[in-house]
Each structure stands twice: as structure tokens, then as C-alpha cells.
Amino acid sequence: MTSDLIVDIFLSVDGWAGSDGLPGYFGYFGPELEEWINAESDAPQLVVMGRRTYEALAGLPEEAKDASWQRLTELDKVVFSTTLTRVAWPNTRILRGDLAHEIQRLKAGSAVPLRTMGSLSLARQLVSAGLVDRLRLMTFPLFAGDAGRDPAFAGITSADLELAGHRVLDGRILLSEYRPTGKDIPRA
Q1: Are 80 and 124 in contact (CB under 8 A)?
Q2: For residues 36 and 81, what is the distance between their CA atoms, to the nearest angstrom?
Q3: Which candidate, 137, 183, 138, places its Cα nearest to that of 159?
Q4: Rounded to whole angstroms, how far apart are CA atoms 5 and 106?
Q5: If we measure between CA atoms, which residue out of 138, 188, 131 comes closest to residue 159?
Q6: Torsion of CA 107, 112, 118, 122, to 10 degrees
Q7: Which of 35, 74, 88, 183 is the most exposed place for a label (fewest CB within 10 A)?
Q8: Residue 53 contacts residue 117 (beta carbons within 8 Å)
């Protein structure tokens, strides 16, 4: 039996997964979103991230290290990087091998689900490689427009998905969960 790989992507309605000049969570942080984040952080998991996300999270200033950050510190984490030589964050290890091979190995050997955190480039590679079991999109109710920084789905290979669930958080944020079907996309 293999563990699931869950990829979470937070994005604006116009498809941006990051922005320049807009606040965290695009300014829509609310109690239900906070509850969802806390529940997800409390669940058993192996966190998968890239170097930039690792450096951003591990290097947070002391005043930003809240209970959620403390919980993340306790979780096992793997960082995919060809440039990092060491990591100081507890329960973290570096993987340098082929992403697809290493993820398949982790899925086969893990008793808990794997979950990406941030790491948009890594998420795109995992989706394109067909390794994602659940894709969760947290869509925030705004057009990021010129402030948009990272187009969420740039370069992703086409794939058929089925809606596995959805819910609204704080009366305005849409959480949609998809599963790949493995079906080919019909071409015209």
C-alpha cells in the first residue's frame, strides 16, 4: 500500500499563486481558514517542500513563529534541493535525487500521507509527473491582476480530474479537491 500525495495550491480567481504587494492569504485570512490550516497541520503527514519554501519557513523571525510554525517544526519534512548542503530546522532532511523516483519511494515507504507546502515549482512538477493523488485548490475571491507573481498552472501537463469535494470557508474562499482520473484528455 502506498501513501497519498496531496498538493495544496492557494490561488486567486485569475490563477495567480503568489503576488507582489498583496497581504498573506491575499488579505482574506479568517477564522474558518485558520481552523482548516490548523486541522491540516495537526494531521499526521510528511511535509514535502522545495528549497525556497524551506528557507522562507525555517528562517521566519521569532515574532512570526506561532503555534502553527511550532507544529510544522515537529513534523517530518523533506526538502528537494540540489544546492542546500545542510538544514538546521528539526525533523528535516534533504533529498537530491530524481523527484519522481524519490516521491514514489517516499509514498511506498510512508505510513502517513505526503503533503506539499508552498513550493509551487515542485507542485507543478509533481502534477505533470502524474504523482498527485489529491489536488486541493484554495481559491481566494479576487483578481490579483498586475500584482500576480506566479501563474499557478504554467507548464502543467494536461490531465483529467474529478471533483472529490468542495466547501466554502469564511463565506468567500472556495476549497476544491480533485483527484486525477488517469483518463486521456480528448483532443480536437
Answers
A1: no
A2: 29
A3: 183
A4: 10
A5: 131
A6: 0
A7: 88
A8: yes
- Cα separation values, 111 from 39, 58, 98, 130, 184, Å: 19, 25, 22, 21, 30
Instruction: Return the SS3 of 26.
Output: helix
> Of all helices (H) and strands (E), which one includes residue 124?
helix 120-128
Q: Which residues pair with 38 in a beta bridge?
A: none
* SS3 call for 77: strand
Query: Tell me, what amino acid is at 117?
Result: M
114-172 per-position pLDDT tens digit:
999 888 999 999 999 999 999 999 999 999 999 998 899 998 888 899 999 999 999 99
Pairing of strands 76-80, 134-140: unpaired
3-60 pLDDT, tens per residue? Answer: 999 999 999 999 999 888 888 899 999 999 999 999 999 999 999 999 999 998 888 8
Instruction: Show the beta-strand stretches assigned E in the chain.
Output: 5-12, 46-50, 76-80, 92-95, 114-116, 134-140, 161-169, 173-180
Grid cell for residue 146? 498586475
Q: How far, in Å, CA of 106 to CA of 83, rounded?
A: 21
Q: Coil, helix or strand for 56? A: helix
Instruction: Give dist(CA 81, CA 51) in Å, integer.
Output: 6
